[in-house]
Amino acid sequence: MEITLQKKRIMESWQKIISFNKVDSTNSYFSDLLKVQDFAEGSIISALYQESGKGQGNNTWESKKGKNLLLSIVLYPVILPIDKHFLLSKAVSLGIIDYASTKIADVKIKWPNDIYFEDNKLAGILIENVIKGSKINQSIVGIGINLNQTNFTSDLPNPVSLKQITNKNYLIEQEIVKLRNSIRFYYEMLMKKKYYEINSEYLKCLYRYNSFNEYRSNNKTFTAKITGVSELGYLQLETKENEKMEFDFKEVEFII
C-alpha cells in the first residue's frame, strides 16, 4: 500500500496548481493548508492579489491585482543537510534566472533573495522552512515576479517589471507553468546533489560578483567586491586592501 501511495505522489508531483483571486499571502495560506492536507512536492498556490504579501523580514511585497506572478511552491528537500540549506535558495534563484532569461538579458541574482535586471528589482523570493530533527522537512518557496505592472506606488526604490522592459503583456497562467518548469530543473539538480554545478552557476549569475562597489554596514560606507556566498548563506566581501569580511542577512546594504 505504501509503495502505491509513493508512486501516486511521484506522478502527481509538479502538476497541481491552485489559483485564487485573493489571499493574505500565498506562503501563509499554503502553510495553513499544509497543516490539514497533504500536497505533492511541486504543488503551487497562486493568487491574483495578496492582501499582506510577505518579503524578507518585515518587508512587504507591492503588487496590483492581476498584474504579476504571486505564488508559493511546496518542496520536501529532506536529503539536503541543514548546513547546506542556502543551496535551496541558490537553486530557486537559478530557476527564476532561467525563466527570465528567455525574455530579457542581463538578469542577475542579488544576494540574498532578489532577482535584478540591471540595477532594478524584478523579483523576490521568500523561503520558509520547517525543520524536524536534522532535516529540512518542508519548504514553502514564495515568489513574486513583476510581470505586467507598470506603475509602482510604494517607497521601494527600484522596482521594474517584464512589461516595462519588453513592452509585452504576459498571460499569468502560462508564465506560472514556464516558471515552474525552470525551477524544477534546478531543484532536481539539487536533489541529485550536484552542488558544485549549482554553486558554479550561481556565481556566474551573482549581481556585482568580483567587481568593486559601495556597501554600508554599521553606518559606515566602504568599497569592496563580492567574492562568494558561503554554504550558510553569508555574503563574502573583500576590500581593495585585501580585508575579507562576511555578512549575514540585513548586516550589509548595497548602495545602488
Attribute tags:
256 residues, alpha+beta, BirA Bifunctional Protein, domain 2, 2 domains, 28% helix, 31% strand
Strand and helix layout:
Blueprint: H1 2-12, E1 17-23, H2 26-34, E2 44-50, E3 69-75, H3 86-101, E4 107-110, E5 114-117, E6 120-132, E7 135-145, H4 162-166, H5 172-191, H6 195-204, E8 212-217, E9 220-229, E10 235-239, E11 244-247, E12 253-254
Parallel strand pairs: 1-2
Antiparallel strand pairs: 2-3, 3-7, 4-5, 5-6, 6-7, 8-9, 8-12, 9-10, 10-11
Helix pairs in contact: 3-5, 3-6
Written account of the structure:
This protein is α+β, with helices and mostly antiparallel strands and 256 residues long. The protein has 2 domains: 2-204, 2-Layer Sandwich (BirA Bifunctional Protein, domain 2), CATH 3.30.930; 212-254, SH3 type barrels. The chain has 6 helices and 12 strands. The strands form 2 sheets. It has a 7-stranded mixed beta sheet, with helices on both faces. The radius of gyration is 18 Å and the shape is globular.
Write a brief caption for the model.
This protein has 256 residues and is α+β, with helices and mostly antiparallel strands. It is 28% helix and 31% strand. The protein has two domains: 2-204, 2-Layer Sandwich (BirA Bifunctional Protein, domain 2), CATH 3.30.930.10; 212-254, SH3 type barrels.
